[in-house]
Amino acid sequence: MLSPRSVLITGANRGIGLELVRQFLQLETPPKHVFATCRSPDKAEDLHTLANSNGAVQVLKLDVSEPDSFPGLREEVESVLQGSGLNLLINNAGIIGRDDLSSVTVQRMESLYRTNTIGPLFLAKEFLPLIQKAAKAASNQPMSCTKAAIVNMTSKVGSMEDNGSGGRYPYRTSKAALNMVTKNLSVDLKSDDILSVSLHPGYVKTDMGGPNALITSEQSVQGMMNVMAGLNEDTNGLMIDYAGKIIPW
Ligand SMILES: NC(=O)c1ccc[n+]([C@@H]2O[C@H](COP(=O)([O-])OP(=O)(O)OC[C@H]3O[C@@H](n4cnc5c(N)ncnc54)[C@H](OP(=O)(O)O)[C@@H]3O)[C@@H](O)[C@H]2O)c1
C-alpha cells in the first residue's frame, strides 16, 4: 500500500506533476501534507483549485534550476511538518531538448542539465535530513515509498541500451546523468533505509509529450502509483516504467 504521510512534488502545476497531486489525494490513506511546488504559483490555477478543496495541499514556489532558493523552501516545508520528516520527494519537473548534433549548443546543454539533473540532485541533498528523519521514525518498517524515498522522473530516452536513434543530446544526456544520480543515491542512502528509483512515465499526452503520445497522464500516474506502492529493497536503484517493467540503463 502507498500511504506516505508527506510528499513533495516538483513541477506540480501541469502535466504529470499535477496528476500526481490529484492521485495522491485520492489514495485510501492520503498524505497529511502534499507540498505541490511550481515555478509560478500565481498562474497555477488548477493547483489552487485542488488546494482550495483539500487542506493537505500546500502550493509552494520552486524553480528547480535555482538551487540557492532550496534552503528557503526547506524551511517552509519544515515549519509545516512541525518536527516530522518528509517521506517522499518526487523530482518530476523537467524540460525537453530535441537538439541534434548540428543544432546542440553549450547553452542548451547547460540549461537542461541544470533543470533535469542538477536541480534533482541538490533538492535531494537539501531535503535529506528531513527524509532521514522520516526513515528513522519508521525504523521498524522495510524500505518503501511510504517510509522514505526519492523518486526521479526520468525518460527511457536516457537509457544507453535503448538508444537506437541518436540525437536529442541535451535531453538524453541530462536524463542519463539523472539516472546515475538515482543509482548513486541508492548506494549512498541504503544504510539510511532510503529508497531511490528512476521512474519512466511512458509516452504521455502532456505539453511535453504532445497529442500523439500513447497514454494519458491519468493512465501514466495510475501506473506509477501502483509501481511506487510495490517498491522495496529489491527494486532500490533501478529504472522502472509506469507498467512496472525494469528498463536497462
Ligand atoms: N510526457 C512524456 O511523454 C514524458 C516521457 C518521459 C519522461 N517525462 C518526464 O516526466 C516529467 C514531467 O513531464 P510532463 O510530460 O508532465 O511535462 P510538461 O507537461 O512539459 O510539464 C513540465 C513541468 O515541469 C515544470 N518545470 C520545467 N522547468 C522547471 C523549473 N526550472 N522549475 C520548476 N518546474 C519546472 C513545468 O513548469 P512550468 O509550467 O512553470 O513550465 C511543468 O510543471 C519530466 O521530467 C519529463 O522529462 C515525460
Write a structural description:
By secondary structure, the chain is of the alpha/beta class. The chain has a single domain (6-241), classed as Rossmann fold (3-Layer(aba) Sandwich). The chain contains six helices and seven strands. The protein has a seven-stranded parallel β-sheet, sandwiched between helices. Helix 6 (217-230) links the parallel strand 6 and strand 7. Helix 3 runs parallel beside helix 4 and helix 4 (106-137) runs parallel beside helix 5. The two termini are 27 Å apart. The mean pLDDT is 98. Residues 10-11, 13-17, 38-40, 62-65, 92-95, 115, 153, 155, 200-201, 203-204, 206-209, 213 line the site of NADP nicotinamide-adenine-dinucleotide phosphate.
CATH architecture: 3-Layer(aba) Sandwich
β-strand amount: 5-15%
Quick check: average pLDDT? 98
Radius of gyration: 17 Å
User: So what's the oligomer here?
Assistant: single chain
CATH class categorisation: Alpha Beta
Tally of individual domains: 1
Question: What do we call the CATH topology?
Answer: Rossmann fold
Output the number of helix runs: 6
